[in-house]
Amino acid sequence: MKRVLVLAAAVTALFANAQGYPGSKPISFVVPFAAGGPTDRAARDLAEAMRKTLPGGNFVIENVNGAGGTIAATKVAKANPDGHTLLFWHIGMAATAGLYRKLQYKPLEDFEYLGMVSDVPMTLIGKPQLPANTYRDFENYIRANGGKLNIAHAGLGSASHLCGLMWQTAVNAKEAMTTIPYGGTAPAMTALIGGQVDVMCDQTITTVPQIEAGRVKAFAVTTASRLSGHKVLKDYPSLQEMGLKGFNLTIWQGLYAPKGTPEPVLKQLNDALKLALKDPDFIKKQEALGTVVVTDQRMERAGHKAFVAAEIAKLRPLIEAAGKFAD
Ligand code: MLT
To answer: Which of 31, 85, 110, 135 has the fewest CB atoms nearer than 10 Å to its CB?
Structure first.
């Protein structure tokens, strides 16, 4: 009898959670980087689209910078699993698994995977004062000035760090530049525009407006081929086109809840996410910034998790080849 009552209470709690969700309590998107950067921008756009389909959903963005995104991930992994604290993160979810020797959470075990949002190309950009105007001139300039230049990134395991590492490894210029970490690429972009740093590899979400305004110099995109369909990016070669054989880096963004979030809440969040991915306003905004909204199995919870597991396996040897780890 006692067991039946316990079971009945558990079932009631499960449905109470689903029925009452989200209620008046805000849903926090924890963003692992500074406000104004690409992750923050994409999270705000997604929150706006999900607000339309999650009745009563009151979203807030919480920027928790540091340690390449792992501080934010730790916070969400340990948060109350009630659907009110979610992590909006990118490829760092997979990259940090190979880069950090010690993490306070297990990327594949301590989260519920809610679905992927978009694929995001990156761009190699330089400060406006750089004398180079083409990728070839830029590479020659880097070689001629080895040791004197610096490259900005958003912390170990960030997308900008991963991209910079891969590019420096591919052109054999790992020691040519000093790396300067920031709390996100928003402050790094300000430093680049101001000429305090020389180079950065950042997501198109924030580079497109700056390239268009002529505030930074762009040299190449990181996708396998040129982005011929994009009004701004079409003018820049891919790194493969410039002879970096096999160079192909597109990052992605996804949404995560702490492990143990009730099943009906997860379903409600995944349904709202999938509706957002079909929202014409959301799609238009993302495409203008060079990103491609996910339309495949990765928008499903299981598809998202399987993809991230494959990314962890793919990135680990690349990170090992670059040979720089963090504690
Ligand atoms: C940001 O939002 O600042 C970036 O996503 C940081 C990065 O990973 O490069």
So the answer is: 110
